[in-house]
Amino acid sequence: MMLNVVAFYRFVPLDDLPLLRETLLKFCQAEGLRGTILIANEGINGTVAGPDRGVQALVDCLDAICKISQGEVKRSHAAAWPFMRMKVRIRPEIITMRAPEADPSVRAGTYVEPVDWNELIADPEVLLVDTRNRYETKVGTFECAVDPGIESFTEFKAYVEAELDPSKHRKVAMFCTGGIRCEKASSFMLAQGFEQVFHLKGGILKYLEDVAPETSRWNGECYVFDDRVAVGHGLQAGSWIACYACGEPLSEDETRSKSYEHGVSCPRCVDRLTDERARYLRARHQHNLSAKTLDERSV
Question: Which residue in 176, 182, 243, 266 is the catalytic one?
């Protein structure tokens, strides 16, 4: 059975978060869903997988609670469970930036549909910026995009303040996985005095879904925050895997390194590996393999 995967977010005021958390968790568990939902006073953000009926029931539930269909809702598929369990968590922000002036409900950049994106980024006056983290840009990015080289989204503010200038960079286009980071990034940049800030509506995932490979300006695959690790055009599962020890996405070449041991280490983290941690990781890996086998039998 093919599993449905739905990714969604919406900036919308939410109250009584503990009650909402309990309601959503019970609902998802009853529908046999797995994934992660983050809720905050500013809105909701999540990715959930499961049978078609259960996923659609969740979308209908969220539409009744917070009009999620007015935000971003993207669907894809997975041949195996991309999540181990269901989690609903309360957070100060649904995407952490720690910049009060970055409020998409007050201001946000200009949305650009995927079908119009190629034309925009072909403009020589446009600076194209990837707002994602280093380990994500490693897997793939747009042609000619600037990589800020950040390890977490909270570092994007420092990058803008150090490297970008409103008087010089008058047209800035940005993109991220599903669009949510660009909501805050564009709001932050407008608050800093940048005049024209554009962002890809629906993010890379919507671009890969809507734009044909032969006209695409995307290079590589798109990192996703689940066990699929990466997807390509048409949102088909990609070729990358993740290091179970540190989470680093790994190419096929990296898995042939002497530093790579499945479930235990990779070239990025092997120098920090102690004998005690290696034993723990090997035991955890065996446990996860057993749990995955049971999951595959249930799909």
Answer: 176
Instruction: Establish if 59 belongs to a structural domain.
Output: yes
Position 123 pLDDT exceeds 60: yes
**Rounded distance, CA 209 to CA 233, Å?**
6
Q: Are 29 and 76 in contact (CB under 8 A)?
A: no
Give the closest residue to 48 by CA, choosing from 261, 269, 226. 226
In a domain, 176, yes or no: yes
pLDDT by residue (tens digit) across 208-236?
999 999 999 999 999 999 999 999 999 99
* Sequence-distant (≥ 6) Cβ neighbours of residue 236 within 8 angstroms: none
Q: Is position 144 annotated as part of the catalytic site?
A: no
Q: Does 166 lie in the same domain as 73?
A: no
Q: Rounded to an integer, what distance in angstroms lies between the CA atom of residue 155 and that of residue 159?
A: 6
User: Cβ of 189: how many Cβ atoms within 10 Å?
Assistant: 27
Instruction: Output the domain CATH number for residue 188.
Output: 3.40.250.10
Separation of CA 158 from chain center? 21
Do residues 215 and 288 both lie within one domain? no
Helix (H, G, I), strand (E, B) or coil at 190: helix
Which of 204, 220, 236 delimits the end of a domain? 220
Pairing of strands 86-90, 126-130: unpaired
User: In terms of domains, do 125 and 172 share one?
Assistant: yes
Last-in-domain residue among 35, 55, 90: 90
Band of the pLDDT at 2, cuts 50, 70, 90?
A: confident
| CA dist., res. 164 & res. 106, Å (int) | 22
